[in-house]
Structures are given as C-alpha cells and as structure tokens.
C-alpha cells in the first residue's frame, strides 16, 4: 500500500475582469476497493458565493462553484490523501477470450461504455488498428496489453501535438498526442469491437531520476482507460497506454466516464470582456 | 356546383388505379361522414367564389397577426392555413382521447423509469443501446440528486389515420413541443373567416385548455402560487417556431425571455431586471436541453443559462418539460411500445404506433437493410428521412446501425384541401397535445392539422374541430373553470428587451425618414421642366444614396430597390425586416396591432412587386408610410413602462440624426439661388415641415428660415431642439437614470450646444458652402451617436455572452 498526498492547482489568469465564473470540477478521488480516500479539500479563490458537491451519474464526485466577485485570476486548488494498492484481477477473467468481454444482458449498464461518445467516434481506422491485437479467441488480458504496448510504441508523446478538442482521427493522423489522446484512441479501438471501455481521469506519481530531487509541480493530471473483463464480477482492467503498463499503486483514480468530456478536471463558463486567458496547472503527488 | 359536392363526387369515383385513402369528409358510399352532416347545410353552400374569398381573408388575417414559420433558418415564411377544418365527431374522438391519455401516461412512466429505476433496461424490455445511444438521454438528469423526475407536463403526439380509419401514432414530441400557439391562431382565423360554419358546428373551444395549461405551469412552481413567476424560454426570433413561442407567452401572460435574460445566483434563477433581479420559478422551455446550460451541457451554447442544471437539482426552479424529456422523442423506442406499456402500466396499448424497426437489433437491422427502399429511414436523433439512393442509405445505416430506424410508409388519410385548381384531396396528419393537470393527462380537444406533401413535410395547416356530443357540454370537458391565479403584475424590464425596444424606435424612424425621402425624390423626378428642377432632383437622390448606397443609376429602379431589396443596407426593406425580427423577439410586450401595420406594409410590397409602373413606387411608398405612422399610433397606446420610453427615445434620437443627415445633404453646399430654393423646399417636405414654414414665413424659403424651423424651433416637433427635449424627458423616465448619468450628461451638453447656436452664424457663407453649418452638423451627428451608444450601454446592455473557460485560452 502506498499513501499519496495530492495537490492539484489550476489557475486561470485573464487580461480583463471576469464578473461571473461558474465551474464544475472533477478533482476528488473515488473510493474504490483498491483505493482509500482519507482527506479531500477544495479551495476556490476568490471565495465562491456558491459551492456544492454532488455525485454524478457514474458515481464520481463533482463540485459546482460560482464566483461572483470580479476577478482577474481564478484558482482551483484540490487536495487529497489516498492509500492505493495495485488492483488485482480474477485470472480466469483475464484469460477468457476477449470476445466474451462484450457486455451480456446482465451487464446492461456497461453498454453505455461500448458506444461512440462525444469525443470518441468509432472510426473504421481505430477499429482496424485495434483488430491487430484482438486476434480471435485471444485472452482479453493479453490482447489489451498488446494493444497498449502498440499504442505506446506507435505514437509519440508530445505536448502540443493535439488540443483538448482533438479527435481520435487527429491522433491517428498525427501519430502523436498526450495521455488523453492515447486513452481515447484505445477506447475507440476496443469499443469498435463491442467491448466496454471507460475513460479514467486521475494522477500518476512520477519518480525523480536517480540523484535528483523531486521537482514540485512536475506531475500532471493523467488519463488512462479501463476495459470491462468477461464475467459477472464487474471488473475493469485499467491500463495506461502512455506508460505502457497496467494501472498500479502509483495511479490515483479520480473519476471515470465515457470520455474526457464527461470528467474534465475543471470546466466552466465565464462572463467577461477579456480577450485572452492563460491556464497553469500544477500537480504534486508525493508519498505521505 | 358547390365545392364540397364537387369534392364528394371526385372522391366517390376515384380514378382507376388510384391509391385509396381514408377520406376525412366523404365516406366510402360517397355521402358526407357523420361529423360533416350537421354542417352540411352551411358547408354545401360554399361556392368556389366563397372559397377564394375565404382563402384571401385567411392570408390577410395571418399577415395581420404576423404569423410566420421559419423553416431551416431561412427568413420567416408566412404561416399557411387551409380554409376547411378537419372535423372529428364526438364519439370517435372519445375513443381517440382514451388512447391519447394512456399514451401520455406511458410516456411519463418511461421518462420516470429511464431517469430512475431503469426497470425497462434491467428487465431487458428495452435494449440499453437504444437509450444510451440517443442524445435525448441526459445523464445529468439521471443522477440520484436530480431529485426524482418531474412528470412530463406537456406532450405532443403526431397522429395519422390509416386506410382502415384507425388513428396511428407517428411520433411524439416531448423535448419542447411546439404547435399549441399555431393551433390557437388557426382557430382564431377560421372562426373569423367562416363565422357561419363555426357557429353552426358545436365544437370545443380551446380557451379552457389554455387556462388549464397556465394553471398547470403556475402550480409547477416550487413556491406558493401567488408568488410564482413563469417565463417562456425561447431560442430567439430566428427559431423555427418563434411565433408559436411568442404567442403562447403572450396568451398565457408570461414573459418571453431568452437565455441572456436569465442568470443563476445562489442556486436560483433570476430575471435580469434593469432595476432589480426577479426570481423565476417555472421555465416553459422551448430551447432544446442540450443548449439549456453551457456549464453542464453544450459549452458552446449561447441560448441557455449557465447553472440552470444546478438550479434544477436544488429544486429552486422547475423546467417544463424537464431537461431529460427529449429521450421520449427517440423513434428507436417505438418497436418496444407494447412491452413497455405492459411492464410499466400493466395495460395493452390502445393506440397503435407506426411500425418501426431499429437498426441496433439484429432482426431490426435485417428488415431495415432488406426493405430500405420501401421504408422511411431516419436517424433516431431527428432530422429528415434519408433520401439518397438505396445503396447509399444502406451504407449509411451500416456505418452506425443503432443510429437509424426504418418506418413503414403509411397511407395517410386524405381531406379536402384548397389549392389553385379548386378543392383536391390531400394527405393529412394531426398533432394533438396532452397536458398533465389535476394528477392526470388530459388531451386538448382539437389540434394542429397538417397537409402533408409528397416529401412528407407539411405544406399547410388545418384547424381541427372536435365536436361536442351535446351543445351543453362544457368546452374541453372542463366543467370547473380553472382558478385564475393572479400573478404579480409588474414585470421587470430586461436589458435585451429594452435594447430591442430602442432599436424598434430607431428603425421605425429610419423607415419613416427614408420613405419620405423616396416620396419627395420620386415627385421631383416627375418634374423636369427646368435644369434647376432636374438638378434639385439629383441633389435629393444623392441624399438617398448617401444613406442607402446606389443600386442602379436609373432612378425608378434605384428607388424600387430601396423599398424592396432586403440586402440593401440603409434601405426600407432591410429596416422593416429588422423591425419585424425585433418585434418578434418582444412580441409579448407589444400589442397584436403591431402586426397589422406590418400587414399593411407587406401588401404595399406586393403591389409594387406586381406593378412595373413608376407611379407604383410613390403609391407603395405612401402606403408603407401609412403603415409606419400607424405603428406610432399603436405605440401611443402602450403602457408607459421603460420599454415604451426606450421606443420613444430611440425615435427621438434617430429623428434628430436623420434630420442632420438631410440638412448635411441639402443645406451646406450652395448651388445657386434657383436650385437652392428648390432643394430647401424639398428638404422641408422631407422633414414634414413645409406647411408650417409656408404659414410662418409666407413662402419665402431662405436658408436661415429653414434652419430656424428645423433646428431651433420650440414648437415644431420635427425640429432638432424639440426632438432633443423630448428625448430628455424619455431618458429621465428610465429606471437607471439618476439625473447625472452619462447619457443624461451627454444629452444636456448637446441641448446646450443647440440652445447656444444662432442661425445667423450658421448660414454664414465661406466659398461654395456654409462652413459653420457643416461643423455644427458634423459635431451634432457625432454627439448623437455617442449619446445613443451610451444609452444602450447604461440601459440596454445584457453584459457579455457566456464563454467556456477554454474559450479564451492562449499558450502561456
């Protein structure tokens, strides 16, 4: 078990006053069989006139806030202390042919994660890309791991290669992207074959290079995918294509949905005459 | 031979091989159906001439009421209404009514289930992909915290009648059903143009249903009825059914608002009143759910209210229908009607639904692909049926099968429809409405009939008459009149409405000024006796061109285009189109008589389009002037609220501006005594001060007398000074005016300039012009424009539009 202390600070700066700011945030880690959440905090600056917390359709904690004080800078600071162990999966489920992963009648809720969603179009290209890993009858654990490995090898991690609105097609064409893009690509490929796949938003603790100090704020919010395994147990194999690995005890799960649009860490609406803004994100995941 | 006899004869002897539809008026034996028997005496008397008269009266009535429909985002088209109603007998309606009530109850049960327990999904009655893959399923509403689904309040059901005379449900509308306003308007018009028939038929009047709707909306409020404020949320005057929205708002006595008029604070929805915000408790939503909240739904929407979903969750506001209701419009649900009805209501469905196959299921897809050419194939999220070649349709379906359904092509019943060639049978469908009131669903006894074209689209509408069993039956079967709740009467003025009012005033004044110019120029052009006359006509024509550009060197066609071409900036046609849009978006604030004035204008346009004669330019311009002057009369009878003051202020400021433009084009430059005198006369005529000038100065037109009368006179309502003074009165009456506000300071400064100026110095000559006058007019125009800007800024600005956090992002 590893205990992590998380600090996630998002700051927007505007070139003119913002009179009203409404926000929705997904920054509070989920409580899961392999993840205990001990303390969470959310501070919005300036102090919001309204702040509320709720559980969304998928059981994620989301925050709502409204700042009514005119401001040129908005800060959203989320903190949490969590204990994580690496998830363990039923070996039989991992060894079952991937075709059995398609949700049956009992798994009707998972059908939601088999369909195209606003940022994951099920394009023939993505389906074909995944097909080379999904050989008939191949154990699902192996097939998914192979696909994760290929995405990691075929696509370059490059910040700026894509934007928050990039599509799976863009990523396929660019052969590059960031964690969110690789997650979307993996999701599109597997859903194209009828599997149920979630987009997972969270954090990854990074290890400083040997001999170097931890750089504060060097971490970032992270994203990966989770594939429903065959069987009645409702197990989802969580895999991280950006790092070519299964999700383990360095991954902190915050929220899941059909794609990024369901669970963006921070989204909102502002009323302003400002023309420009900048956003900075500082994430720290340190052992506690 | 009368039209109905001819129709009956035609229908009684169908052409060989013609498809045989159920006829709404004539039975298989060639006799009138029972519903028409009672009306026979009056109806049979209708001659072709009567019918033509009735038809033209309908067109005129609809124009006078400003009834429009904007198809595909094009400019508003006139609403079309066929003179002959669809008449449904009491006994027959009663059977239908039971089916409709059950249908609404079923839809409500589906809604509650899908956003709650989801038994339909867990039991396997409904394939989950049919629901999860439809954009109408709003996951926000399916949260536990959504606090249970509110019942479906209003629903619409499209019905068609098949060859065996059975009514079949073609589809349902629950997202934001439209048509109740059109149905009511149709009834108003038909009762006016066919009074004998209307009196003869003992039919259910629609009034009580409206009262019930009003009452249901007020009761939906999470607060005491006497405190409840209800608004109608419209996407704006360009929306397809803008008329319907405005009509319903005006008729129910609720404010017609747009998203920018509302704001969420402290988890409640408020109307952004200029003097104070007002709580809103119920929103009759005519904006699709996806566009209703840019925070939690589509972030690019400018039509919604940021935070609305949160306010709904907190129960401080009730949105009707709820944000999740669009899920019911999904045609992929239709194949499962029977099973859903049995599971949720433990009943068999009474009304059949049109046979539908969903591509998301293997068997359905099979039928869809193998019978694509015989089916109507459409996307489940709306839009027109696919109409490409069959192979293309199949390919589209195969790419995403769960997004498509195929539906049988129904042989809809036919009814007599008036057209160029007289009365002919044409397929019809009927939109019916159900309302949740008093714990049950009650159908409107009536509806909105549609004349369906070859392409399946509606070509025209029909009134729908449901007859009473006995003449003593209460209208709508509502024996108890609905209690009329008195709502707080004072409506806050919202900045958007005030902005519209201000522009309405300004545009009306522009139209008036341009029309007067056109009339004078046209008259001058007919008098070409001397060089001076011709020169003068040219000078005045140039004034037109300065304001509205030049479309043609040839005077007659140039003036025509000023009157007719909507694309011509500064022209009358464009300004009137703008006025119409503006009036549409504040329809609930205006007297219906406003639309009459547009009707007068439209007829003048029609006459001009038809007649190539130059004389018609003056004739039509004259009628258009009558229309815009009549608008003044309508406005004069409005409540003296801030909206009225802004119309008046807009008119005053624009009048002052137009006067300056006129004087700039006529009085600065010197063109020789002969020409100048004529030009001054013309300018006086345009400024509608010729008669006054003649009386006061005994016919001696000199620059100084003209400027005295038009700039400085105390009593001439057309003078700059007078106009500015009345502007000051209106400005002072606005809620945000303090006596020292910016617009007030600007106006005071401007008035001071005018008071100080002396006409002797203005007319001073420098070379070929009058430099002092030029400077004065230029400065005045600039001041007036700044003043108008500051009025909008202080009194009529809604503030910036919502933008997503990411909307302004640049790389750090």
Automatic annotation (TrEMBL), chain A:
One Pfam short name: Transglut_core
InterPro entries found in the cross-reference section: Bac_transglu_N, Papain-like_cys_pep_sf, Transglutaminase-like
Record domain Transglutaminase-like: where: 171-243
Gene3D superfamilies, per the entry: 3.10.620.30
Protein name, UniProt field: Transglutaminase family protein
Source species: Nocardioides mangrovicus
TrEMBL record, chain B:
Domain of life: Bacteria
Residues covered by the Circularly permuted ATP-grasp type domain: 85-451
Pfam families tied to this protein: Alpha-E (PF04168), CP_ATPgrasp_2 (PF14403)
Domain DUF403: residue ranges: 495-792
Alphabetized PANTHER family for the sequence: BLR2978 PROTEIN, BLR5612 PROTEIN
Protein name per the record: Uncharacterized protein
Species this protein is from: Nocardioides mangrovicus
